[in-house]
Amino acid sequence: MHYKAIAFDFGNTLCPWDEEQYWEVTRTALSHMCARIPGKDLDAVLDTFSRYRNEDSSINLPQSLENDLPGIYQKTATEMCGKPLSSADLADLVDAHVKAFVGVCNAPKGLKEFLARLSSKYRLALLSNYPLPDAIRLSLVKFDVEKLFKPILVSGDLGIIKPHRMIFEKLLADLSLPAEEVLFVGDDWVADIIGASASGMSCIQIKNHHTSNKLEGVFGTYIRQAVYRPEFSAWREAKPLAVLNSVLDLEGWLEKA
Predict the structure, then answer these.
(1) How far is CA 216 from the centre of its chain?
(2) What pTM did the predictor assign?
(3) Where along the chain do its domains lie?
């Protein structure tokens, strides 16, 4: 098949993203909150945040709706100090989260050159789940690859997450291409492989960064409930065209395909 475009997931596809990084980002942001809540230690704030995050995830993610992370921060602050953060303080906290995210994200060696070579043959797009879109976009700026991707779609802008069919339809509409001319590359079986397959795209799964960790019990379990919705009934056994150990292996696979 001659593909005209390749669309990539971000975390655990273009770069590693694991439990340690998640908690480093979260703790950094909540440390900023603690500075504004006298007498409250980080562990107490973290416990409250985690409870609200889990509650929202259990409601939103099975429906493929994105969490309102600033709202979760705001509910945490309200419970901990009896009043919400000011707009300026909330903006500072979100900014701290974004900067911490960008700080812990690191591109694999050779990623920039790999994407540049691909961009000479294919249109490149990015479609990622994350509640704060600037975290993804500024990470691409850090990697010096953001100009290679058009469009860049992040769930936080759209209010829905993969595997929701509408987010993949938005990708195809922005590319102005039919599904059969777009190859999707991602790590997650439900969000990426089933989601893209249900929208008519062929898929490649990346496995090198994927690790089993406690976050699967928070996010993965809830996202996977989406597969039982009627629109995914025919795609529960969806399989990728190939499973690669690294996104950097995609170039060789395309040459042989």
Answers:
(1) 14
(2) 0.93
(3) 5-16+108-256, 19-104
